[in-house]
Amino acid sequence: MRTELKNKIMDKPTIAPVKTAFAPIIDQQCKILLLGTMPGDRSLSLQQYYGHSGNHFWKLIYALFDQPVDPDYQARKNFLLQRGIGLWDVLESCTCEGSLDSNIKNEVVNDFAAFYEQYPAITEVFFDSRKAEQFYNRYVKKSSDKNYHLLPSPSGANATKTFAQKLEHWKELLPYTK
Predict the structure, then answer these.
(1) Which is the catalytic residue, given 7, 55, 106, 137?
(2) Could you read off the pLDDT of 58-114 as tens digits, one per residue?
(3) Residue among 97, 121, 120, 93 at smallest CA distance from 107
(4) Is residue 158 among the annotated active site residues?
């Protein structure tokens, strides 16, 4: 009897929780928009973009400017803005078991038409993963008034490139920064 009940409970499909992205880090002077897909579980629990210690995002950003990573999250956000870099995610919400982009389902895209109207200085859009670019292309479409760039994922799970190789690609940002 207990085994039957246990099997019935285990056979029930589990429903991944709905995840909601953060507000953008942006101001009127930003010319660059860096786009991810959706914050991972660790980032969501910390309420910080790229909060997982294994993610190289902040390390890459600071390395571009030969600076040590500031441990203070507010200081890291200001560091981006002082260089004309905005940060957001393509998706407003989704369901996702775990933190892998490949597990994303039921995605809802952010309102980019309203966003670009509010921040018209953005001319350079950088995707920090192929999946972010794919979602953008599926739901938003690229426009002729912006330049689009694909960067290697900063995720520590992206082991196809070393940190030094990722950094070489991320240097594409530098000509557009303040």
Answers:
(1) 55
(2) 999 999 999 999 999 999 999 999 999 999 999 987 776 765 665 667 788 999 999
(3) 93
(4) no
